[in-house]
Amino acid sequence: MAENLMEKLVALCKRRGFIYPGSEIYGGLGGTWDYGPVGSLLKKNLKDLWWKEMVQLRNDIVGVDAAIMMNPKAWEASGHVEAFTDPLVECKICHQRFRADKPEEIALHEKSHKDVRIEWTEPQQFNLLVKSYLGVLEGKQSEIFLRGEITNGVHVNFRNVVDSTRVKIPFGIAQIGKAFRNEITPGNFTFRSREFEQMEVQFYIKPEQNEGKKWFEYWKKNRMDFYLSLGMAKENLRFRDHADNERAHYAKAATDIEYKAPFGWSEFMGIHHRGDWDLSRHQKYSGKDMTYKDPVSGESYIPWDIETSAGVDRSILFLLLDAYTEEEKRIVMKLSPKIAPYKVAVFPLLANKEELVGKAREIYESLRKNFMTAWDDRGNIGKRYLAQDEIGTPWCVTVDFQTLEDGMVTVRDRDTAQQTRVKIGELKDYFVSHLI
Length: 436
Ligand SMILES: [Zn+2]
Prior knowledge:
This protein is an alpha+beta fold. It is built from 14 helices and 23 strands. A hairpin with a 2-residue loop joins strand 12 (253-261) and strand 13. Residues 91, 93-94, 96, 109, 113, 118 line the site of zinc ion (ZN).
């Protein structure tokens, strides 16, 4: 069933325009995915909601949007050039490469050679940074990296943000953007991709043990609550603390939030206590002062950073898996209305009755000013409901003959399939009240 669920979801994503394989007509490009008309809306809604909660509704977080390409020194400072590696082994028969720390994938590959015993090369450290070149000459001089995580673009602007705004510690800097990793074996649909998007807050605090503990716990709860508020099932989510030997090179403490995916419990966001690693390294490598001067006490220090880092694509994948519901006669994507691609769909009961189509069109044009609204006049109502259920549209509005007499429409709820009559003039408020 679990394997099956992944296959069903991948098929639905393609069929309904959530996610397609990247450059598919050329046979694809491993580890890349394209979001279709419905998927791009879902992704945008998730990012917008995240930004609203982090930046718009808080006094202590501001946003930035830093460049993907950075001075290569920034990656030396952050330790990525040296330590951002996975151990790689190569099958001596077919020369395919795998991660030495993924025994299940190695076992699977060994089976693929049937009775032949595979010899593997010794593990080598393989750097995950994606290289590129700027300027007219290829070579060391012009070599740059596409960012392997979005964090660095925030830290290098710490000074700028402190000097150009009124932020005071504790405060955070939020950012959403793309990152790139030369994953050896991308897989599990969008889970392990080579190009992906992250949403992160670097939250700067006073360098004190108690402050560190307090904010680490605060952000753990805050982030778990975010995913629960999107309707994800509690039993499918858990925290997992990193053991001492698996923490990233910068982390003092780290916890993942994991989802119970069909391919096992899997990390899609982390809360990391990075200490003063980033700022002190950037101070050392750039020679620029990264200390913060407390305006009240006059103390100077390099702040600590509590980071929350979420994969946008992984979040989307797990929100989709969690929302996927099979009922007797339909598949329903029970996505939270807050992030559903379309909020409303409008139908005329019959496509060949001008009065119905005209009225429905009028409602459609009015609602779309406030909500992403779908229009459908194909086939019968039942089929239109099924199509909207599969893309997770929470409400369908139907204009029927009675509408022309009493000015009311039928609003059908996605999850319960219950129908309510609502006055046309009250539709907007009806949806707004359900979306907050
Ligand atoms: Zn092989």
